[in-house]
């Protein structure tokens, strides 16, 4: 087999996530494509925790659908994840024998009894190491034994993981691993399955999550300043900056609140540095006023919002795509603020670099709209050639500009050369109050209208940026999908599966989600008669925004669902199949109107 | 960035005066504060383009625009965070922050303790008039109990914030107070605050001529003000400073309440040091992704 999805759940202290980390690290080292998502309750310790690891010999776009392997260290915790860990008749179920449940009586419906294994995982761990802490190592041995995955790399990983704790612990864990393997050999699967070998060269792949990728991309893009306030699920970005940015001559500041977090970053931008802040929904709400200030003061700034379930505290540890309205519209006054959304760990690099470029080129705040899944899932990434990226810088005033400097000069493209403190002759007043070309306060309606027009005009070229949209499939296709953020990966796989079934479907994935590029959507929808805008939110916010700007064909409807209720590629394919069937039928809707 | 050196050049107060005409009411205390700022900056001798002057919202927050420095008239209550970002991004700059009592002790009050404990080298001037002037005379956080205003028709039920005690309690290393009734004295205080190596706080009793009480006007200040020096106060004595600060609202003391002459290094200095120590420790920016390779 070339694709394997493993889901594991247990209590907080069971080391489930640690097992997932070991598995994906080993798989990445061996050259597999892999992805790992974690899911918890929102408590720090204890409670339920789970992870899902998908391995493949081909590129993976999402964490996968139904599990090939389900591991339950106890049933209460496993069941709390509901639709996040779905099983079927193909699923091999491995569970702790101590739970006392007979294989025929496990609380999962639709599984094949022959593929259900009660394993004394805790006892085996104790036998090998003296404590049951090594349960996760036993699980790794079981998976390696039954599916033939990355044995050597896993043993190597264990040695690395326990290196600091001494040779005895390494040996004990190796023993736990081998006990797992032996159990698997003695209890063969009803239908033996083995994972194909990876094709990529060992030790060549990157393995990271979206938050670290974002921070690294920002530093690559020239960001020298970060300030923010801790908030799940974006805090790792601040952690990366506070650890690394000093090496590049930059600075980072953990602030007292969300307003200070964006305020200090805006100050740094005013001082001439590329700057960034990061937050999640509740913080975005608090930052709104200063986002408006950045717009009117025409200062570049990147604001990362890692979306989680909302409103309010909502589901702090689970993914949702419900901040799009807030990202696009939360400001008083007439504001146009670009919103860019990455769809994977890999393209978080491209989109982050682009966010800085757009911010600097157009002197505007930019919202980088990630989500918990993209931000916190681990993913293998093929090496990225950084030399193909162009890094942009804000347009500084020339000697001539400085002779009679007007910070907000009306130019043809609406972008005015920008000075910063320290620059002789560039002195000006930045302000949230409306101002004339020299930056002096005004209450003139005429100047206000002209400045609003300037601030909108300068962003107009963005809508023509075809490179910020990814369309695949046959141009004349009558079936279509539109998806953004982490759900784009679900739809990439769904579109491929649908095409393999012979359905003529195309897919549009925007990196630029706002402003709406009317022409790009108009061209895309021209051939479309039926389709779905697929989103992880209750309302389907992109669909609603598209309807504001574009004549979306009547046959294109939202397919959306609240956060923490994963949308599976198979479900999208089923929707497309039904839509295709409906298109085949004569237009009965007209006839049956009465 | 390299800054043009300004050490050789002498600056006069008028070099810091911009072409904008203040919007303040005739007789507003803020005019005196502005004059004192011009004079203090001339005394310091840094070029206007090396100065960033940040404010919030309110009558007093218009002040940066009346100087030739780089100004940032930001949003209500957020001047301190913005100023700290500027200073940390470029420690070479002289950073001034100004605003009213509402800006500093109501909507932006949460930032004050953190600016103090963070200790970036900047000077915060609060123009304290005990009233919300720009919105036409409502209660402010420093309004005295019993004050009748459009939002306290029958007299305020609330005690005022004591700005001096507040910042002293949070560990501010330099705390002073002045009044435009003694403009040269105020200029000297502001200059000393700017020269102080770390976060410095100057409370200016700056009367509101339109909505302020009779006993808060400049004329009354002239009759009541007492220099701390004349009381024999030792600015190195923090507890004595806190004792004197208790009289806020009753007495008008001017001068330096507290000055720590052995302060810890500023955050901007520590940051610069860390940048120097860690320079070159990371992979070059274009190779930063190599740290993610699974080896």
Gist of the model:
The complex is a heterodimer of chains A (about 600) and B (about 300). By secondary structure, chain A is an alpha/beta fold.
Query: What is the CATH architecture assignment of the largest domain in chain A?
Result: 3-Layer(aba) Sandwich
Number of strands of chain B: 10
Number of helices of chain A: 20
The CATH superfamily of the largest domain in chain A is identified as Pyruvate-ferredoxin oxidoreductase, PFOR, domain III
Largest sheet of chain A: 8 strands, mixed
Portion of residues in beta strands of chain B equals: 15-25%
Annotated CATH homologous superfamily of chain B: Thiamin diphosphate (ThDP)-binding fold, Pyr/PP domains
Biggest pleated sheet of chain B:
8 strands, mixed
In the CATH hierarchy, the architecture of chain B is: 3-Layer(aba) Sandwich
Contiguous low-pLDDT stretches of chain A (5 residues minimum) are 590-594
Q: Domain count of chain B, please report it.
A: 1
Distinct helical segment count of chain B: 9
Q: Largest chain interface and its two residue counts? A: A-B, 72 and 60 residues
* Residue windows where pLDDT falls under 50 for at least 5 positions of chain B: 1-6
Taken from the alpha-carbon principal axes, the silhouette of chain A is: globular
Mean pLDDT of chain B: 95
- Can you list the strand order of the major beta sheet of chain B? 2-1-3-4-8-7-10-9
Distance between the termini of chain A: 53 Å
User: How would you state the average pLDDT of chain A, rounded?
Assistant: 95
Tell me the span between the first and last alpha carbons of chain B: 39 Å
What is the oligomeric state here?
A: heterodimer
């Amino acid at each position: 087999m070339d694709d394997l999805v493993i889901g594991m759940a247990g209590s907080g202290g069971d080391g489930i996530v640690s097992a997932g980390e070991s598995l994906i690290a080993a798989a990445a080292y061996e050259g597999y494509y892999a992805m790992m998502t974690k899911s918890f309750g929102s408590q720090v310790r204890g409670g339920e925790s789970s992870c899902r690891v998908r391995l493949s010999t081909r590129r993976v776009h999402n964490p996968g659908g139904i599990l090939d392997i389900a591991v339950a260290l106890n049933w209460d915790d496993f069941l709390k994840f509901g639709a996040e860990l779905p099983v079927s008749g193909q699923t091999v179920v491995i569970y702790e024998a101590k739970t006392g449940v007979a294989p025929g009586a496990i609380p999962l419906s639709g599984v094949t009894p022959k593929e259900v294994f009660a394993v004394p995982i805790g006892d085996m761990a104790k036998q090998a190491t003296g404590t049951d802490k090594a349960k996760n190592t036993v699980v790794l041995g079981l998976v390696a034994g039954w599916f033939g995955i990355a044995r050597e790399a896993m043993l190597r990983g264990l040695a690395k993981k326990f290196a600091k704790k001494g040779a005895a612990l390494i040996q004990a864990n190796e023993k736990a691993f081998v006990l797992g393997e032996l159990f698997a050999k003695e209890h063969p699967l009803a239908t033996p399955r083995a994972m194909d070998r990876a094709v990529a060269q060992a030790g060549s792949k990157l393995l990271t999550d979206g938050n670290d990728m974002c921070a690294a991309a920002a530093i690559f893009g020239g960001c020298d300043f970060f300030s923010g306030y801790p908030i799940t699920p974006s805090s790792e970005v601040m952690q990366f900056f506070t650890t690394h940015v000093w090496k590049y001559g930059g600075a980072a500041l953990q602030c007292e609140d969300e307003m200070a977090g964006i305020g200090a970053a805006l100050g740094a931008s005013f001082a001439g540095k590329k700057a960034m802040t990061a937050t999640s929904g509740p913080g975005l709400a608090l930052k709104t006023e200063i986002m408006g200030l950045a717009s009117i003061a025409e200062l570049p700034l990147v604001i990362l919002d890692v979306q989680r379930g909302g409103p309010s505290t909502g589901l702090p540890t689970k993914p949702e795509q419900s901040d799009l309205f807030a990202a696009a519209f939360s400001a008083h006054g007439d504001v146009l603020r670009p919103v860019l959304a990455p769809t994977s760990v890999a393209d978080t690099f491209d989109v982050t670099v682009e966010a800085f470029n757009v911010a600097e080129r157009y002197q505007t705040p930019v919202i980088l709209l990630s989500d918990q899944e993209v931000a916190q899932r681990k993913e293998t990434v093929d090496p990225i050639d950084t030399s193909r990226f162009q890094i942009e810088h804000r347009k500084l005033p020339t000697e001539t500009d400085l002779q009679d400097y007007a910070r907000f000069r009306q130019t043809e493209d609406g972008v005015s050369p920008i000075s910063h403190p320290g620059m002789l002759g560039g002195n000006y007043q930045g302000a949230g109050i409306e101002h004339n070309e020299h930056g002096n306060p005004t209450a003139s309606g005429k100047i206000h209208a002209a400045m609003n027009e300037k601030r909108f005009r300068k962003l107009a070229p963005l809508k023509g940026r075809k490179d910020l949209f990814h369309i695949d499939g046959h141009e004349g296709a009558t079936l279509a999908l539109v998806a953004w953020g982490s759900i784009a990966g679900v739809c990439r796989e769904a579109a491929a599966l649908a095409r393999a079934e012979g359905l003529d479907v195309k897919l549009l994935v925007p990196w630029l989600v706002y402003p709406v590029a009317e022409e790009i959507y108009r061209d895309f929808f021209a051939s479309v008669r039926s389709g779905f805008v697929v989103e992880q939110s209750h309302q389907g916010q992109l669909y609603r925004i598209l309807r504001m700007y574009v004549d979306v064909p009547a046959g294109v409807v939202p397919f959306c669902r609240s956060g923490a209720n994963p949308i599976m590629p198979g479900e999208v394919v089923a929707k497309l199949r039904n839509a295709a069937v409906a298109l085949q039928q004569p237009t009965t809707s007209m006839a049956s109107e009465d | 960035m390299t800054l043009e050196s300004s050490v050789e050049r002498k600056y006069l107060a008028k070099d810091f005066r911009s072409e904008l005409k203040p919007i303040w009411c005739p007789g507003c205390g803020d005019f005196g504060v502005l004059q004192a700022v011009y004079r203090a900056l001339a005394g310091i001798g840094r070029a206007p383009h090396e100065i960033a002057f940040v404010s919030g919202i309110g009558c007093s927050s218009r002040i940066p625009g009346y100087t030739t420095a780089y100004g940032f008239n930001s949003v209500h209550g957020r001047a301190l965070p913005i100023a700290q970002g500027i200073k940390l991004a470029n420690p070479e700059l002289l950073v001034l922050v100004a605003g009213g009592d509402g800006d500093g002790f109501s909507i932006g009050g949460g930032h004050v303790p953190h600016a103090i404990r963070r200790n970036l080298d900047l000077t915060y001037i609060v123009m304290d008039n005990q009233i919300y002037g720009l919105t036409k005379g409502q209660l402010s956080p420093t309004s005295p109990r019993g004050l009748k205003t459009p939002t306290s028709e029958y007299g305020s039920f609330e005690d005022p914030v004591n700005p001096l005690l507040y910042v002293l309690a949070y560990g501010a290393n330099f705390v002073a107070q002045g009044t435009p009734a003694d403009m040269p004295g105020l200029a000297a205080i502001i200059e000393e605050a700017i020269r102080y190596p770390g976060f410095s706080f100057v409370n200016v009793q700056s009367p509101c001529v339109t909505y302020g009480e009779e006993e808060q006007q400049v004329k009354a200040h002239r009759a009541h003000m007492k220099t701390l020096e004349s009381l024999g106060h030792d600015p190195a004595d923090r507890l004595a400073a806190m004792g004197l600060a208790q009289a806020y609202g009753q007495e008008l003391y001017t001068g330096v309440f507290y000055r720590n002459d052995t302060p810890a290094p500023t955050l901007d200095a520590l940051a610069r040091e860390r940048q120097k120590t860690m320079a070159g420790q990371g992979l070059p920016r274009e190779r930063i992704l190599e740290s993610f390779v699974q080896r």
